[in-house]
Design a protein that fits this description.
Layout lengths: L2 H22 L3 H24 L11 H7 L6 H8 L15 H25 L6 H7 L10 E2 L4 E2 L8 E3 L11 E3 L3 E2 L5 E2 L3 E3 L8 E3 L23 E6 L2 E6 L2 H5 L7 E6 L2 E6 L4 E4 L7 E4 L3 E3 L6 E3 L6
Antiparallel strand pairs: 1-2, 3-4, 5-6, 7-8, 9-10, 11-12, 13-14, 15-16
The protein binds 2-acetamido-2-deoxy-beta-D-glucopyranose (2 copies).
Protein name: Laminin EGF-like domain-containing protein
GO molecular function, one term: calcium ion binding
Organism: Macrostomum lignano
Length: about 325
């Protein structure tokens, strides 16, 4: 091969490599928003199918029309009725997809939608899925539900809805189970700390322990804690030992300073500043005063202090 051709083919090769390097790792943010836009359109399409399910050709709907144009259900007329409103239907919950993102995606997949309509949908109107045909296979922006990531690998079983597969249905994500509150483990089959297994069944629901428990319990009550949480203490009660809130304000006056008050909270306490109407107080606001600041007097109604009205005689 003459040198000039060798150089030219090396140049072509290099430009191919750099092109592949640039487009080989598409921005995952961009992929996920494309999938989101396509999925939103597919969901709107589904609603459009439901909206037009009982429609027919406007006007006559005579046998002649049905025969000449085919039934409305599979007609181009219905397709247009649906696609016209995909991005502008006010009822459509576009799921964070803006109108311009929707239109940009629709332009890209319009032909695919038409192919879907006269192909997969016509062949099987009840089970054909626009999302599968167009968003998954067509633009390659999505994976089928139950798959995730660049290779559309299968999602793990997240214990039947106790967690969500990260990246489910998209070309992004980690493929790990994001467990719902109360569940943990790779497949969300364990109970988290501070949750217990209800019904005693090995795969029963996980429910929250009493806030009085430190980390584990056998049931929902404060008598069912393994150990008491900070700010609670074990107290023998008629029905057994229970974890009971410690009233820190009583046991150890933790709020110092003449113009502060202590408020007991479940498991803790809070120090607050007295209202300016108070020179001493036991709670918030003017009503919490136990002694009044200069310029204030004991309230005539209720408790606390009120402003002295120096103007009235
Ligand atoms: C998507 O593409 C795969 C592989 O070509 C094919 O087997 C599958 O039937 C397609 N699915 C849809 C819904 O078009
Ligand atoms: C994936 O998403 C689909 C559709 O929202 C849902 O039905 C399915 O349970 C999800 N799978 C996992 C493992 O999260």
């Amino acid at each position: 091969m003459p040198l000039i051709y060798q150089l030219a083919s090396i140049g072509l090769l290099l430009s191919l490599i750099s092109h592949v390097a640039q487009s080989g790792s598409p921005d995952s943010q961009q992929l996920s928003s494309q999938c989101q836009a396509c999925s939103a359109i597919a969901a709107a399409f589904q609603r459009g199918l439901e909206r037009t399910a009982r429609d027919n050709f406007g006007g006559g709907n005579t046998n002649w029309e049905e025969t000449r144009l085919g039934t409305y259900a599979l007609s181009e007329t219905r397709l247009v009725d649906i696609t016209d409103r995909l991005c502008k239907d006010k009822d459509n919950e576009m799921n964070g997809v803006t109108s311009s993102e929707c239109h940009a995606m629709l332009e890209k997949i319009e032909e695919d939608i038409e192919k879907f309509w006269f192909g997969a949908f016509k062949a099987n109107p009840t089970s054909a899925s626009l999302r599968d045909s167009v968003c998954v296979n067509g633009t390659a922006a999505c994976c089928a539900y139950g798959r995730w990531g660049p290779e559309c690998a299968p999602c793990p079983d997240c214990s039947g809805g106790r967690g969500d597969c990260n990246g489910n249905g998209t070309r992004t994500g980690t493929g790990a189970c994001d467990c719902h509150p109360g569940y943990s483990g790779a497949q969300c089959s364990d109970c988290s700390a501070k949750y217990y297994r209800a019904n005693g069944e090995s795969n029963g629901e996980c429910k929250a322990c009493s806030p009085a428990c430190r980390s584990a319990c056998t049931g929902p009550l404060a008598t069912q804690c393994d150990q008491c949480a900070d700010g609670y203490e074990t107290v023998q009660q008629a029905d057994g030992a229970a974890c009971v809130d410690i009233d820190e304000c009583q046991t150890r006056s933790p709020c110092s300073g003449p113009r502060s008050f202590c408020e007991n909270l479940p498991g803790s306490y809070r120090c607050g500043d007295c209202d300016r109407a108070c020179s001493a107080c036991s709670g918030p606001g003017q009503a919490g005063c136990t002694a009044c600041s200069p310029g204030f007097e004991p309230a005539t109604t209720g408790s606390g202090c009120q402003d002295v009205n120096e103007c009235s005689p």
